Amino acid sequence: MGKLIAGVDCSTQATKVLVLDGDSGQILGEGRATHTVTGDHGARETDPREWWEALRSALAQTGRAGEIDAISIGGQQHGLVVLGGDGQPLRKSMLWNDTRSAPQAAALTEAFGAERLADRVGSRPVASFTASKWAWVREHEPAVADRTVAIRLPHDYLTERLTGLGVTDRGDASGTAWWSTADEAYAEDVLAHPLLRLDPQRLPRVLGPTERAGEVTAEAAAVTGLRPGVVVGPGTGDNMGAAIGLGLRPGQAAISLGTSGTAYAVSERRTHDPSGLVAGFADATGRFLPLAATLNCTLAVDRVASLFGLDRDDVAPSDEVVVLPWFDGERTPNVPNAAGTFTGIRHGTRPQQILMAAYEGASASLLDAVDGIAAQIGGLEPDAPLVVVGGGSRGQTWIDVVRRLSGRPLLIPEAQELVAIGAAVQAAAVLEGEDPASISARWGTAGGTLHDALPRDEDRLGRIAALRNAVVETPTLAGDAS
User: Fold this and answer.
1) Which of 22, 49, 53, 145 could, after both became Cys, cross-link 3 (CB 3.0–4.6 A)?
2) Domains along the chain?
3) Which of 9, 98, 156, 238 is catalytic?
4) pLDDT tens, 104-127?
5) Nearest C-alpha neighbor of 454 from the set 389, 354, 355, 385
């Protein structure tokens, strides 16, 4: 057995820890502890100290904390952690899905111009981005802003608790909208803008892909069960961690079927989309990870099933029925005030047909996101399978629909906790000085079930596109909430 490697996934709802054998990638221990998320009217917040307590608890549950040789943190992107002079949080962290800073995102875009800002930092900021949240704090909580001596992302906060050092990585830094994917450095002109007024000295040092963040301090070891001196990797954002865990090749795309949906692909070249559809992130290996998201995925489809009292897979061919299940508005396409739209329903329509149409509408939005990414990077590998992960990847109807609408072969990995696995791959690479891709290949992280391509269902895609175009051009058809 090789050295023991720990990978951490600090997500919105819970912190998960996997302990793996460094030679084979076999999971030898695991733990999980939940967080509290509070807020309403767009607010979503968690006290960062809960993440630290959850990490301690999850490490203890593994039963192997004292044997770990290297550890790395994968964390939810974008969250804003503000620290005072004593190193303690001054307020709860504003999470990625806190939407209160949408006006500040719009103001930043207007101040710089969408084209210039996307070219500068890789992405057009939206409410989820860290810069937007800091601008909100500047405007609404100026006393907190004035007392802030350090700003961290969620994974940075945990890394600093382990090592005592303020560091981050280029992948997670690229989701702030104040780190430039062009310069590989903080964008000081953005930081200096009156909406932000942020001294770069308050930000963590950005590490290289396999650079050590430091070692576990004696103080951290005493409360976590880790040994002092354990190597700590730079960590990264959750999407970047999953990409490492999957061992994605350049030009290969993945989609995650979760409460919301994400699509991303590894790219050798930098992207910058001023429309805001595709976020031009960096990855955690020195390349790039353009990403697009949808707001309505498995939760929206489950809502339709519950409306009719159906099981998730109790479906029938949709025929004339078309559904856009945009219950939370939608980001791909960008219609934040849209609501669900159902058409083609007749006296003889069965609930099972409506449920199938909901699967199709949600999947089509996510596949539009894949197309948007492909356009940004100059196309995907023609024969590479579309990698499908997330909770929906375990549902037969989801797989059937994505396979039929994408026209691509699908790969469904067996591995579940891909963010934690990716963090462990990074930690092993730092410890051994090995390329992360060779580690993920040795561990077989992308092993799973391969489904052959089917002809694209152009008729169904055409029906969905027609309704989508009508709704986007005339938002009141979808329930304009403005």
Assistant:
1) 22
2) 4-234 (3.30.420.40), 247-478 (3.30.420.40)
3) 238
4) 999 999 999 999 999 999 999 988
5) 385
